[in-house]
Structure formats: C-alpha cells, structure tokens
Amino acid sequence: MDSQVPRHIGIIMDGNGRWARRQGRPVSFGHRAGVRAIKRVLQACEDHGVHALSIYAFSTENWARPRAEVRALMRLFHETMQREIDEMHQRGVRIVVSGRREELSQRMRERIEEAMARTASNKNGVLNVCLNYGGRAEIVDAARRLIRDGVAPAEVDEASLSQRMYQPDLPDPDLIIRTAGEHRVSNFLLWQGAYAEMLVSETLWPDFGEDDLKAALADYASRVRRFGGRPSAEVVAS
Ligand code: IPE
Ligand code: IPE
Ligand code: MG
Prior knowledge:
Layout: E1 8-12, H1 16-22, H2 27-47, E2 52-59, H3 67-90, E3 93-98, H4 106-119, E4 125-133, H5 135-148, H6 158-162, E5 175-178, E6 197-200, H7 210-221
Helix pairs in contact: 1-2, 2-3, 3-4
The structure holds 3-methylbut-3-enyl trihydrogen diphosphate (2 copies) and magnesium ion (MG).
The site of one 3-methylbut-3-enyl trihydrogen diphosphate has 10 residues, from helix 1.
C-alpha cells in the first residue's frame, strides 16, 4: 500500500452559503450544489486509492440555523440517500452514518438504517456521512457506553474508548480538508483527528472537484508525519 496516499480523508464541507449568496440565490441552492460535489469527490477518492471518506454534513450545532434551512437540509439528505443508494451499492461503497441518530426523524432513521444494512458487506470503499455529528457528543456517547458496559476505571484507556466511538472499524483520518478558507475544526472528528494532517482549501465546497482533491493529495504526500517522534532522517549521533 502506498503510504503517501491517505487511507481515510475527512472533509469539512464549508462554503455552500457563500457560494449561493455570490450568485444571488437562496442557501438551499448552495446545499444542492454541495451534494453534486460529494459525488465528484467520492469518485475521485475511488480513482486515487483513498479507501474511506468522512463527510461533515450536519453538525450538532447546525440546529441553530434558521428553521427553513434546517428543514431544507434534512429534506435534501433524505432525498439524496434515497436517490443515490442504488448507484453506491453497485459501486461497492459501504455507507455508514455517524452522529446522534435518535434526534433525527423516524423516516430519516429508516433511510439510514436501510442504506447501512444494504451496503454493509461492500468492500470497495467507505462513505461515512457525519449527520447530527459532533466530536464532543461522540466522546460523551462513548463515555456513556463505557459506563453502561460496566468498565472499571482502571480499564478505561484509549483503546477501550476508541472501541466505543461511532465507527470503531475505520482507521483514523490521515488528512482533514476544510473548504472555504476557514481555519477551524468546528467539532469534527476531535478524537480520531488527533494526528491528522490539516489542509485548508480556499475553494467553496460546491466548486470543489477532482483537481482540488488531486492538489490536496499532492500536498499530503509532501508532508512529514511525526506523531510526536523524530523521523529517522533527523536522528543524529549524540
Ligand atoms: C456548509 O456550508 C454546509 C453545512 C454546514 C450543512 P455552509 O452553509 O456552512 O456555508 P457558509 O459557511 O454559510 O458559506
Ligand atoms: C461545519 O461548518 C459543519 C459542517 C460542515 C456540517 P459550519 O459552517 O457549521 O461551521 P462554523 O459555524 O463556520 O464553525
Ligand atoms: Mg459554514
């Protein structure tokens, strides 16, 4: 396996609102264009050997947006999942959804469960849709599971917590991309992203495409990951 290619990329898809505003269109127009960008980038990940893609679709804080926007977003997620599931399944993509599903509507939960069950044994790649997702909420939920499982304090360690995160089978993200130029994490993959390489792209999410992904992959390939250690090339005799 080429270690220069990230196995798992996380994307904070930002800039839909700005993209729409620039064209004098409603924000929902930007969110629709954002869905088309997801399709392009998922295909590009497949073409470039990236196994897993986590996309930040809706944060636990996004409920604070205007009611009409939240409603339009939920409708869009539901409709997209329904429309795209066949193609995803044919392409062998496993779909997983991370977040507090119990706070979503009944019909959204049914869609999600159906998509996850149908694609559960697919092996060509993983699309992790982070929906009503918060990194803090995920850690809280993992702590609740530890307590529910009766884990003794001495047994609480990074491994026992990691096992109780939403997607314990996914490797940690190697690269986290944020679009639209903002330099912040906004509660995305706080636990798993501890040593992720960060990349901020100025491109607004609806304009993001294969060329942007290729540029991100090239940038990633030039990074030296240290994980707190010292790369062997730097070790000098003392
Ligand atoms: C990201 O685009 C999509 C979601 C948060 C669902 P925004 O809607 O945040 O776009 P800006 O930041 O207003 O441009
Ligand atoms: C982060 O974007 C959440 C998603 C991409 C779903 P936001 O637009 O909500 O983040 P802030 O508010 O700019 O930090
Ligand atoms: Mg934003």
